[in-house]
Amino acid sequence: MKVTRRDFIRGGVAAFTVSFGAPAFLSDLARAQGASRRNLVVLYLSGGNDALSTLVPYTDGFYYSLRPTIAVPAGNVLQVGADSGGRALGLHPRLTGLKQIFDAGHLALIQRTGYPNSSRSHFLGTDIWSTGNPGNSAGAGWLGRYLDTLPSPVDPLAGWATTREVPRTLIGNKVSVPAIPSVSGYAFLSPNSGAEATYSRQAMERIASHLPADKPHLSFVNGTSQAALATLDRVATVATYEPSVSYGNDGLSQALRAVAGAMVRGIGTKVFWVQIGGFDTHATQNTNAANAGYSNLMGAVNNALTSFYNDVRNQGLLGDTLVIQFSEFGRRIAENGSNGTDHGAAGLMMAMGGGVNGGLYGTAPSLNPVQGNPTLENSGTDVTHETDFRSVYARVIDNWLGANSVSILNGDFRKSGLSFI
Amino acid sequence: MATPTPLVEHLLRRAGFGATPAERDQFAHYTYPLAVAALTGFDPAETDIDSKINTVGYVGVTTRGRFSPNTVINDARQRWLFRMVHSPAPLQERMALIWHHHFATAYSKIAGTYGSSIATRMMAAKPSEDAANAKGQIELFRERALGSFRELLIEVAKDPAMLVWLDGRLNTRTRPQENFGRELMELFTFGVEHYTEEDVYAAARVFSGWNLRRTFPGTPQAYYEFVYNPNQHDTGAKDFSFAIYSSGSKRIEARSSSAGMQDGIDLINALSIHPETARRMARRLWTWFVSEVDQPDQAFVENIANVYLKNDTNMKPVIRAVLLSPQFTDPSRRLQRYAWPVEFVVRSMKEVGYLGFSVDSALTPLLNMGQQLLEPPDVNGWDVGAGWFSTAGMLSRMNFASALATNQRFELRAAARAANATPEALVDFVLGRLSMPRPADAVYSALTDYVRAGGAWTGSEAQLLNKAGGLFHLIVGSGDYQLI
Questions:
Q1: Cβ contacts of B83 within 8 Å, gap of 6 or more
Q2: How large is the angle between the packed helices B315-324 and B32-40, nearest 10 degrees?
Q3: Do B391 and A231 touch (CB under 8 A)?
Q4: Whether A192 and B470 lie within 8 Å, measured CB to CB
Q5: What is this model's ipTM?
Q6: Could you report the per-residue pLDDT of B218-240, keeping only the tens digit for each?
Q7: CA-based Rg of chain A, rounded to a whole angstrom?
Q8: pTM for the whole thing?
Q9: 3-state DSSP assignment of residue B102
Q10: What is the spatial distance between Cα A210 and Cα B257, in angstroms, rounded to a whole number?
């Protein structure tokens, strides 16, 4: 049975009512809590990214023998040098912008990230990556728990999910993060105009401020309405943002455009969530196609991240920006019969930003399915993890967010040498 | 207007989609057991309401050229919403929605594979209106709404939309595809903690050869239908970690390729009557009907799981047992369940009014509320419960309430004239029309103060026009109305 939000909501609604019980002075709060302009943007590649197609071990003969139709030809990869084990690696050919950012020293590629007994379930896997707890993935997300550590009451715009639903990663026990997929659609309408419309909004704000302690579900809904009504006007300032570069019209590009706008307008948001789907490439993966499948996914990620990088750089905010990317698992080493790949284990994480120490972190697997190959698992069919993903989180929490990773992650996952930020 | 008992109102909200004033009149005369019988006693062969689409007296649809619900996805969505508003068997549509959530299949992947027209047919075609008699997945769910779950699983395994969605069409002897076999066990039956990775590999082999074949190629009725392809079936024995047969055997023995389709039937049979499937079904029914925030009541789970197994997975006695259970009828459960976006928009149309309104106006709001029909986010369906209530989702609910109230304002003024004496009378009228109990004093006074805002209340036509519509907006958009 899937672990869902309901378990923690039960314990959490009382806390929500507390945090929304004092909505006054929100702009002061935002100013105080946003004093540091540092931002964290989490990019989720939904479906299980085929890490071996993102960062290609193009000198490993098994990569080609196990992937006769979907391997990226060695001559096409964008070479990024060799890791500490001497394995040469190259980015997918569509990642041209990321290659430039890598060359500028602002992109870190963290190989073989994962955890023991990696789940092959999308849902359990996503919950584990969201909570940072493979043993019990119910409850609040790792960034929600970070937001819970901010001085109370927390500004409702401290986090911003650009998706229609708030991802578990951003769900806290005390903090409710808004989901704002479209800045222009984030408005309050009324059947009447003029003064009557004002009366409607005032009445709705009064209704939403009713947070009875003995009716937690009603309080939760009203608290959400209250957060929406309290953030409308600040979000509206983002709608007029004029970026310094052009962004694509795809969802990820538009989401990152809004993130850049929120950063430039300084509305106080500290943590953003963006995501792109389509990575569950069981069939017809089309890694090498000119205009299809995985190739287009890489193109979309590249274009959106490159536009965003250039925009925040032009706005003088690159040093305040950190993007980290993850996916719920990597994929099987061998291609399946449908010219695709099935669910696997360890994956690739990326970190991008002005403060990032770019380069290759960790080592590539040897794809030789011989018994006893320590870089593989599941009878040599999947890549096994080398760096616990929580070590990456720990670095971000300690060195970027300025919080305590040991308490937020409920354990010491700090790893020396993982100095990407 | 006659009013049903609070328990029957509860039933109508949870097992139907709320009720129109006429339906409330009808159910006002029913005892609770009679109301349950009325909702569950439908014959799927006699519930067709589609002939009323585009006729006077019903909610509208918006046509762009010709209304083509079998081949144009947004028209398919409109037809389904129309049925939810007007079906004489609302539980049938609710169960179809539940199966759609349980076997969550998204149109977009199919459209990306076969184009929009065939994809819409695979999702929603009505056989009697399709040149190839194609039966869309939703029609399968409607037809088998309260039928045998075991048989439904078999039909789903052969369903063209599912064969595309979870790649079964590509599953062959030499190239086993794990996607369907995994989700069959993880999501459709007993759940993630009851199988191993080896079971996934074996299940993939079981369904090898369950593919699609083209029919009528090159003609307007060109389509794809299920085929068992014996040449593509892996005939070897398959071993599982759980019993497949009543003997306790965990092995599906090797079979000839011509008989190999029985492998899949045997696996589905075993999964459908596995005690953990029965319990998971009971827990899911708890979530869908009783509460999605409280842990399932253990007595409820055992009771419903038993009914499920004793009735050979037939859902009609199971649903009846849910609706008659002490946990469902407990007064403390009323108005405590977070309404799904589809439940919210359909209920509000039934209660606020729909004449001159088009279900098309609900499509974009539903997307923004997080529930686009025929496009669940992934195979796990929607994240029901508190997860619906993001700030943007809640704004979208408020704004849909505004759009509906704006559209209905003249009707609402006419209906409210008799209640124009005082602001309190007007608020009470609107609450009654929405089958809402009186809210907390703080909310009630916000509503009456709203009626008074802008000048002394005289009950004039101009005031009534502004404030009746305004009150419907405020109450339908309030937190109280989001709980059913």
A1: B49, B50, B93
A2: 150
A3: yes
A4: yes
A5: 0.94
A6: 888 899 999 999 999 999 999 99
A7: 22
A8: 0.82
A9: helix
A10: 66
